[in-house]
Amino acid sequence: MSVDPFLLLGASAADLVQAHPVDPGRVRPHRVVDGDGYKIRMLTMDAGSVMREHRAPVPILVQVVAGGIRFRVAGTEHVLSPGGTITVTAGVLHELEADQPSHVLLVLLR
Fold first, then answer.
1. Is 102 among the domain residues?
2. Which of 37, 41, 81, 85 is the most exposed place for a label (fewest CB within 10 A)?
3. Which CATH number covers residue 89?
């Protein structure tokens, strides 16, 4: 049995959004894929929801797919809209707050 050398996660941002509905009042991580050296999650966040300050044990890349968030890290608040992307070193405190229903792609690098 052969394994495909690729995995199409979505042909568009709309595909990613449709596959992971926002739960009212919640932040919810959806497992997208666990690959060799990385994990991809889609965070869905309802308007006003907050992923409280925390640390990731590995470096991360965060990209807004839809909606808008405030990403706080190292004493600075970054307002991110679709396409907005930020990386964070392992072990650094950070926090996310959704200004509107949002879909945020999270890549954890091992």
1. yes
2. 37
3. 2.60.120.10
